[in-house]
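DM between two lab members

TW: hey, do you still have the Arginine utilization regulatory protein RocR entry open?
JB: yeah, one sec
JB: this one, 644 aa:
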Amino acid sequence: MAEIAFIAPYEDLAHIARQVSLELGLDLSIHVARVEEGANLARDLARNGCQVIVSRGVTAWLIQQAVDLPVVDVPIGGYDILRAYYQAKQFGGPIGIADVPDVIQGLESLETILGDTFLKYTLKNQDDDIRRGIMALKEAGAEVIIGKIAMAREARNFGLNSVIITSGKETVYQALKEAQRVLQVRQQEKRRAEQFKAILDFAYDGIIALDEEGRITVFNPVAEKLSGWRAEDAIGRPVTEVIPAAQCHILLQTGRPELGELLDIGNTRVVANRVPIIVDGRTVGVVTTFQNISSLQSLEHKVRRRLAGRGHVAKYTFADILGESPSLKESVRLAREYAAVQSTVLIHGETGSGKEMFAHAIHLAGPRQNGPFVAVNCAALPENLLESELFGYAEGAFTGARKGGKPGLFELAHEGTIFLDEIGEMSPRLQARVLRVLEEGEIMRLGDDRIIPVNVRVIAATHRNLAQMVKEQAFREDLYYRINVLNLEIPPLRERGADVLLLAEHFLQEFCRQLQRPAGNLTPEAARELLQYQWPGNIRELRNCMERLALRCHGTTISAAEVRQALGLVTVPEPEVPGEGAAGEGRIKRLAGQVSTLERGLIKRVLAEAGGNKAEAARRLGVSRTTLWRKLKEENKIDKAGKA
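TW: and the structure you got?
JB:
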């Protein structure tokens, strides 16, 4: 469907329009229809996507009344009147013309050029009484009437000769160029309107605009949500009826902007910014924006998190928790139930049993899954450092404090979850501060006096008996009952039966893939060793054991001896047989020397594979960095002694 339509009252005009449209390269829809027929056709064209209509005379005027589209009227030009004048002169006698003021006023210059005068009658508009105008011209002595189709037809009814003023190519060209310009402007305005609508509809702020009488002219969806009013009901009403608390109309008198005002709209507290619209020194309207305070707090939190750049996200789901034992399945079942609510959870389990993995899974399965997940080990940091990590600090709070201060982990966990691992190791003073966060939902940074509201779910974990610690006054009783709302017990690995083998196989394959080695198979004896071992370090210890096996074993099977070696289980030397004396003692020394040689070789190989990174080598060997450092120091002494 062409966006510009030409509705010609007569065929000759349509023919000219076709010629001009070809010259202009214009996509033009051309139709022939007069007066009411033309108006009805225009309605159909508007429904089908037409944007601008071009027509002439009374037909153009009726179309303007029928459709809400721009209508370009083909003008009557001087050449058009001149052609009609010479045709009318063939009939002789005075020439009369009845038309709207724009046409009549332009005749004076033409009369001067022609040296002749017209009998003129001015119609107020295209709908004025044409019959009365023709009658007045006849009474004035006119014998020939020139004019548009309606005027010429009425003249013939009075027995007068008539000549239709037809539009020539020049005026049609002028009208179509104007239609192109109008279409371009309309498209630009439509784009601006759509942009404006998108801004209003998708802005986070409620937006209300008033006219100079205090009536609402703009009311966006957020304003609807805040006020409870629909836009179609609010627009056109005085703002005092819709949102009396907004006080927007006051600016119509004062003309002074008011920024950062706190208001209650319904049950929502908002921050309002009211700005007058001033044109030529006169206030002609007001624009007011509202921001939900809770949304502002949420946005502030997102900014804080982005600036902190810590990437606090949960990584493990319930699908990552492997095991088929009834005790583990019961723990997973309870954890899934706890995930659906917001209550505080206390997870109890031995070191390395997977407490943090359960905390990750609870967070990701709950309503806060899109929020941050912040984990902190309360046993890993000294008290002062842990306090600044949890609560943050203001600029200048202490020597070395970062410029601008630093947000704490409770702030970074806003709208999400904070996992307090080994909470039983927290000092009584910090326990009191954590209790306040849980009870009041607010924190205060070190060295600051500003209260910051936070909304966090707390998941705590410990391997200690907190109830006994409460009795011994080593843990605050009020905090214990505050965190022990939902209790989750993680079974130790030694009580999970065949889960040991399931996890061992999983870890072994994982490390062999990393090393690009084929995964070995556990012999029945090796599996028995794993099942009989008590696993004091639980899953963490099992994982370390499988990493050592993946590094040490290059065969297709893993024997019981290799498992025992990876677990650090050294066979106790047999008691010395009477009579053997020094020989038995010599065998023990030789065995110790062999073990020491194997140990040094293993350390060198793992260090090489870790690229010299001692922390990574210690992790792979399952020892602390201090132990590794001591072993390397001893080895260095041996090397120096050998060279000497």
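TW: got it. The radius of gyration is 46 Å. The CA atoms of residues 540 and 556 lie 25 Å apart.
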